[in-house]
Write a structure and sequence with these properties.
Elements lengths: L5 E9 L6 H14 L9 E5 L6 E8 L2 E8 L5 E9 L5 H12 L1 E10 L5 E8 L2
């Protein structure tokens, strides 16, 4: 496998911000498997109670790097910040589809970067429902 340096960032509004840690951990397991990556550790998930930062946060280390995100749910709709970095293959449309379904992602912006030598944007999608 040729080493790649790909990063996918999704920022958007969500109608289904998760609050159950076990559901989130299973989502992360399923996501890693669905996109053909390998977990190095079990997914971590914590519901943050701090005012102004209230919401679920989760991460998982994968063989080729990491997936991390936070959803702020004090506002309606909730706000998602999602980051996936990999040194392997990446199908951004597949990741976006899975994220849309789980979080109820509506209005969003997605960017994909190739970070091999510098920060080169290779894809950009904006959806305003």
């Amino acid at each position: 496998m040729a080493i790649k340096h790909l990063q996918q960032i999704i920022i958007g509004q969500v109608t289904n911000p998760p609050t159950d840690v076990d559901v989130v951990k299973q989502f992360m397991r399923n996501l890693v498997e669905a996109i053909g990556m390998k977990r190095l550790i079990e997914p971590q998930a914590v519901y943050v109670e701090a005012v102004g930062n209230k919401g679920m946060t989760s991460c998982v280390l994968i063989e080729t790097s990491h997936i991390a995100w936070h959803v702020w749910d004090e506002q309606t709709p909730g706000l998602l910040q999602f980051d996936l970095y990999t040194c392997g293959d990446l199908n951004p449309d597949q990741v976006l589809s899975i994220v849309k379904e789980f979080f109820g992602l509506t209005t969003y912006s997605m960017k994909v970067f190739n970070r091999a030598e510098e920060l080169n944007e290779i894809e950009s999608v904006v959806n305003e429902e």
